[in-house]
Amino acid sequence: MARRHWPLPLLLLGTTALHGCAPLVVAGGATAVIAAQDRRTVGSFIDDETIEWKAVTAINAVESLKKEVHINVTSVNGTALLTGEAPTIELRDGVLTQVRGVPGVRRTVNEIRIGPPSTLADRSNDSWLTGKIKTRLVGVENLQSAQIKVVTENAVVYLMGLVKKDEAESATEAARQVGGVQRVVKLFEYLD
């Protein structure tokens, strides 16, 4: 069989084109792995991702909200958890209005604090706590840690997912044992 030699410009173009697609392939593959381990249907998983994206887009469409609030939107099975900070009640209510208008949102859980945006140090601490909790959940007996969504804001931990009651209790207890956690809020939907 003859070996084909490709001109260098075509090889570089092909390599560049593939390189640009690599993040999409990796991201798509990672999403597929997460969805495969989740108790939600693939459609529900995609719906939740869409809710999060559309909610953030709706918030950012309002100039005052875009400039003045720090909001995180996490959706599990149509329940939208809103965490973060808004400097006034009016701005917080504006966020709620935008998110409640997103198709597919069955319920909103308003955990937005009235006050200035959290600092980078606070957000870093929250990320660190989330990582510690996720690590701890992996070691909990009879618990599929992939079923638990962990959100931390201002050292308050929110646990979400479709779980059995005993799984919820095990996950909650594990989260409470992590140093630095101020409070654990259960937002589970129970299968039993």
Automatic annotation (TrEMBL):
Signal peptide residue numbers: 1-27
Keywords attached to this entry: Signal
Pfam family, one: BON
Ranges where the BON domain occurs: 47-116, 125-192
Transcription as UniProt keyword: no
InterPro entries, sorted: BON_dom, Lipoprotein_DolP
Domain of life: Bacteria
Name of the protein described by the UniProt record: BON domain-containing protein
Gene source species: Candidatus Muproteobacteria bacterium RIFCSPHIGHO2_01_FULL_65_16
